[in-house]
Amino acid sequence: YLLAGIGDTLAKWYEAVVLAPQPETLPLTVRLGINNAQAIRDVLLNSSEQALADQQNQQLTQSFCDVVDAIIAGGGMVGGLGDRFTRVAAAHAVHNGLTVLPQTEKFLHGTKVAYGILVQSALLGQDDVLAQLTGAYQRFHLPTTLAELEVDINNQAEIDKVIAHTLRPVESIHYLPVTLTPDTLRAAFEKVESFKA
């Protein structure tokens, strides 16, 4: 559960920067939420590896407490302060798309959202973010490929289902400032699949 919480809470920052590209024009509470999302991202990227090791060793340490606080208190605070500007974008839509495949049911929400952040980064052409997160995910044991979620990128029928569900008009992926088509989303999945940190 800790690992999934890390993945879901990392999305607070990566989705917020899409939802609020000009935060200086927004109310102070929203800016506070965005600033907290960035601080939480930093805690998670810097302390999660140690916190996961401490959990494995059943040690209550500052790193473990900081990561748990970032997930529970920080994540809630970001959503409360940031309102709709710190909620969901493409990462959560990718999660929703993956849920159409029964083999992904065993993976927790945050695990699939974490993978969705990678797809969102690919869609936005953020290779630096993709490299940073791929490296971090490999250290934390979050998925960096569809294969780690038991999805075969070469199974066209399954990928088509995921893409169709992810691109439904009600999905938050449409908040991205890019033109979205099945082909662009497929290209993003393929980029993540072959990306080397």
Automatic annotation (TrEMBL):
Protein name: Iron-containing alcohol dehydrogenase
SUPFAM superfamilies: Dehydroquinate synthase-like
UniProt key word NAD: no
GO MF annotations, alphabetized: metal ion binding; oxidoreductase activity, acting on CH-OH group of donors
Protein keywords: Metal-binding, Oxidoreductase
Source organism superkingdom: Bacteria
